[in-house]
Amino acid sequence: MVILEAKDISKIYGDLNDESSTIALQDINISINAGEFIAIMGPSGSGKTTLLNIVSGLDQPTSGTVSIEGKQLSQFKGEKLAQFRRRQIGFVFQDFNLLDSLTVKENIMLPMILEKKQVDEMEGKVDKLANLFEITSLLNKYPSKTSGGQQQRTAVSRALVNEPSIILADEPSGNLDSKSSAVIMESFEEIVETLSTTVLIVTHDIFAASYCNKVIFIKDGSIHSTITRKGNKKDFLQQIMANVAVVGGRTDVF
Hints:
Blueprint: E1 2-13, E2 22-33, E3 37-41, H1 48-55, E4 63-68, E5 71-72, H2 78-88, E6 89-92, H3 104-114, H4 119-132, H5 148-160, E7 166-170, H6 178-195, E8 198-202, H7 206-209, E9 214-219, E10 222-228, H8 233-247
Parallel strand pairs: 3-8, 3-9, 6-7, 7-8
Antiparallel strand pairs: 1-2, 1-4, 4-5, 9-10
Helix pairs in contact: 3-5, 5-6
């Protein structure tokens, strides 16, 4: 089943006829099936974050369409778009975006509170996710009293709580040390395997990308190449490093 489809996506900043205009994306086509775990990689300025913003509905393409479970994002406006995104898309941000005035439990519950879910349902889902990510003992703490890795696990739990069609993550390991990064990527790996969740991440970290099933490389606003994991993680890591060396980007992660 196709969860996310981006067709002929282009993004141009400024007037196309003006020399000062910038082509951020050009003729991007991506199709993501249920249960896939995909990374988008590329050098700084390649367009990967712009693409993530467009497929999430945070930005609009100059041309092309984005569909999630067969519904085009362009058909939703204002509050209806916000509601569709809350229900169908889970977000995990590099800086976590947790509210310090709320406890870990309240942060996880927030998307359900906005959807006016029943208290019993909210409690049950929070308990399930907290157990999955081993943060049950943190539920009554405030984010500032937890570690970076624990905050990221809280953010992942919040993204999952409404059972969205797809999880989108922007540099999910970017602010974490190597141990915490591994914990987060293992968490993504687990929800893909146990919950059949679909996950799309943007990352510059080849170690993080090696957890994925597929990596899409973007260069100068266009898809340069795609590789699919067939062997073990070590072999896939070598493939990723080879491709990063070609398109440009960090290979000094270790």
